[in-house]
Design a protein that fits this description.
The structure is a single chain. The chain has 319 residues and is α+β, with helices and mostly antiparallel strands. A four-stranded antiparallel β-sheet has the order 1-2-4-3. It has a four-stranded antiparallel β-sheet with strand order 7-8-10-9. Strands 5-6 form a two-stranded antiparallel sheet. Strand 3 and strand 4 form a beta hairpin. The longest helix has 51 residues.
Length: 319
């Protein structure tokens, strides 16, 4: 299973909290997977179509055990999805008005009869527990999360701007900054940094997936640190070899045009050591001397030696 499937499987197994949370999560699932069917005489039924059988069971339990409805369940083959079988749950016309009223899609008219006011739920998300439930339902219905080994990305594909705005608002109220964009005409809410995704998993209740994410995140950070250190060492080595080569060329010019015997004894000694050990670091050059000389001591003498060469050949082409 993918990381996204594992995360959803963990969320589906979570126990239900309060009645308000059941209704809020169901509202999000209705916004993302639900639809209305209109029949003669103003009758309406509500359906949810999902590919994940475990998610279908969760919706069934919300309706039956949580809210007291008796939904029907059947399966259909969807040709456009490669013939895959999807689960369809339906609350029939007799019970639909009560459900739609709970979802704030129907409101009583002056005669007390329920009238359809909107085609999508209007959830009341006022408590922290309901925020968690709403984001969990939105993710279960239309979300996906990438494998953290490859990239950090959590997305929820909204049906319309209203759902996009509501989900983005709930993320913001949880202290999570979400972006949104349009992909093939569909608003998409997106989280693209590890900390925001970790916070989102925490809010939704996916603690096992959070631990997996953090383990992968730590491994990636350690791997990145090791790569940066290796690249730094390689860069330093290249710089060191380049500097050593320049020192060798300058000393050779001094030897040809002036003779090293004209240099002060300390500079002549370091020049001879550099010619004998052209690839050694400054610290290693100091160790070749008896008694040894510190890196700073070698560096100081080498700077003086290079100044001698610059004064002598600064206007010449070394080649």
């Amino acid at each position: 299973m993918s990381f996204s499937s594992d995360t959803k499987a963990e969320l589906i197994r979570l126990p239900f909290e309060r009645d308000c949370c059941i209704l809020t999560e169901l509202s999000a699932l209705t916004q993302t997977t639900g639809s209305l069917s209109f029949h003669g005489g103003g009758r309406i039924s509500v359906s949810w179509q999902v590919e994940n059988a475990a998610l279908a069971r969760r919706i069934f339990r919300m309706l039956k055990d949580g809210l007291g409805f008796a939904p029907s369940l059947h399966f259909v083959q969807v040709a456009r999805l490669g013939g895959r079988r999807t689960c369809v749950l339906t609350v029939e016309e007799a019970e639909a008005p009560r459900l739609l009223t709970l979802l704030r899609m129907m409101e009583p008219d002056e005669n007390g009869s329920p009238v359809l006011k909107r085609t999508l739920p209007r959830p009341q998300v006022t408590r922290a527990c309901c925020r968690r439930a709403y984001l969990r339902g939105a993710f279960l219905g239309a979300g996906a999360i990438s494998n953290p080994d490859k990239c950090y990305r959590l997305e929820i594909a909204a049906r319309d701007e209203a759902l996009c705005g509501l989900a983005e608002k709930q993320f913001a109220r949880c202290g999570i900054a979400a972006d949104h964009y349009i992909r093939r005409g569909i608003p998409v809410i997106s989280l693209t940094d590890a900390q925001s995704i970790a916070d989102a998993l925490t809010v939704m209740g996916a603690t096992q997936s959070l631990m997996k994410l953090e383990n992968i995140r730590i491994t990636r950070q350690m791997r990145g640190a090791a790569n940066r250190a290796a690249n730094c060492d390689e860069h330093n080595t290249e710089r060191q070899l380049t500097a050593a080569q320049q020192q060798v060329e300058a000393i050779k010019l001094l030897a040809i045009h002036r003779g090293l015997f004209t240099l002060p004894p300390a500079l002549r000694e370091i020049a001879e050591l550099r010619l004998e050990h052209p690839d050694a670091s400054l610290e290693e050059l100091g160790q070749f001397r008896d008694p040894p000389l510190s890196k700073s001591g070698v560096s100081g003498r080498m700077r003086r030696l290079m100044r001698e060469a610059e004064e002598e050949f600064g206007t010449r082409d070394p080649g």
